[in-house]
Automatic annotation (TrEMBL):
Gene name of the encoded protein: pyrD
Binding annotation for substrate: 71, 116-120, 176, 181, 246-247
Family: Belongs to the dihydroorotate dehydrogenase family. Type 2 subfamily.
A Gene Ontology cellular-component term: plasma membrane
Keyword Ligase applies: no
Descriptive protein name: Dihydroorotate dehydrogenase (quinone)
Membrane topology note: Peripheral membrane protein
Binding positions for FMN per the UniProt entry: 67-71, 91, 143, 176, 217, 245, 267, 296, 317-318
Summary of subunit composition and partner proteins: Monomer.
Length: 340
């Protein structure tokens, strides 16, 4: 029904407007008694064999929703009804910011892809915290970034503020230094500033009564030398793992007319490069740390490919938009079928 009726209708309108419309519709629908249970019944697959324990956390299944979809922690309870094992909110920044000028979100229908240059638009970390205080049982990741106006030399203060504000309300953290839509942000992926940032957060983390996993989200455009640096940084800072990967700035092989729009590309064209990064990190590190695989997962087979390449968990974003909520259940079913 989604791909035959709903998607063609929604794809007639501006993608950012559709995103807000979908959010509001889902909020409204969940006000009615029984709607949440009906959605769960249709889209959720529960099976003990799907459970995973990764970096000390227990996931009811390995399929999560990537950051960027629920930036402000507005809809994590409702979205979890679609069968996700975990929801990652953000990217959040210390201060609210509007992001880049509109239009800033583009569908590439012929390529089953999206280009976004949102620019960390969000209401600020404190607003997210207010909503997360109401969480009862959804496993939440907190994706943190810096404000656009914060120079890289002071970025550590922004990440520290986010870390402290969110600490009691998320299950794990993701340090985002790989978005292409905040000027100079990717420079923080360089070995020295990244080591300094992660070491600082880990020092803070270890002073807590119970530390929480910190992960690093990396770009798919890193060289092999840079990826080897990432392995070394994970080892030296003792963070919990890596999310591979964020969006790409590459436009190789695209056919859609708006392919040259500035921003990060996600979706089907990212599948191969993301999987290659996962495999490289897994093999070169000798599986020393967990990896969450994200990028171009449009089918259950794509998810299995990432798991086989070395990912412990996977996340959806563009695949959820193009293929609909049934993809979550289909992936979990494929994982069970693979086991049997």
């Amino acid at each position: 029904m989604y791909k035959q009726i709903l998607r063609p209708l929604l794809f007639q309108f501006d993608p950012e407007a559709v995103h807000h419309f979908s959010f509001n519709s889902l909020k409204f629908a969940h006000r009615f008694p029984g709607i949440s249970q009906l959605i769960k019944k249709k889209f959720t697959l529960e099976d003990k064999r799907l459970e995973r324990e990764v970096f000390g956390l227990k996931f009811k299944n390995p399929v999560g929703l990537a950051a960027g979809f629920d930036k402000n922690a507005e809809l994590y309870e409702e979205l979890s009804s679609f069968g996700f094992g975990f929801i990652e909110i953000g990217t959040v920044t210390p201060k609210a910011q509007a992001g880049n000028p509109k239009r800033r979100l583009f569908r590439l229908k012929e390529d089953s892809a999206i280009i976004n240059r949102m620019g960390f638009n969000n209401e600020g970390v404190d607003e997210a915290v207010k909503r997360l205080k109401k969480n009862t049982n959804v496993l939440i990741g907190g994706n943190i970034g810096k404000n656009k106006i914060t120079p890289n030399e002071e970025a550590l203060h922004d990440y520290n503020y986010n870390f402290e504000a969110l600490f009691d309300y998320v299950d794990y953290f993701v340090v985002n230094v790989s978005s292409p839509n905040t000027p100079n942000l990717r420079a923080l992926q360089d070995k020295e500033p990244l080591t300094q940032l992660l070491s600082h957060l880990q020092t803070k983390n270890q002073k807590k009564s119970k530390s929480k996993p910190i992960l690093l989200k990396i770009a798919p455009d890193l060289t092999e030398s840079q990826l080897l640096d990432i392995i070394e940084i994970v080892e030296s800072t003792k963070i919990a793992g890596v999310i591979a990967t964020n969006t790409t700035i590459s436009r190789t092989g695209l056919t859609s007319e708006n392919k040259e729009e500035v921003g990060g590309l996600s979706g089907k064209p990212l599948r191969k490069s993301s999987t290659e990064v996962i495999r490289f990190l897994s093999e070169k590190s000798n599986k020393a740390f967990p990896i969450i695989g994200v990028g171009g997962i449009m089918t259950p087979e794509d998810a299995l490919e990432k798991l086989e390449a070395g990912a412990s968990l996977v996340q959806l974003y563009t695949g959820f938009v193009y293929e609909g909520p049934g993809l979550v259940k289909a992936i979990n079913q494929a994982i069970l079928d693979k086991r049997s």
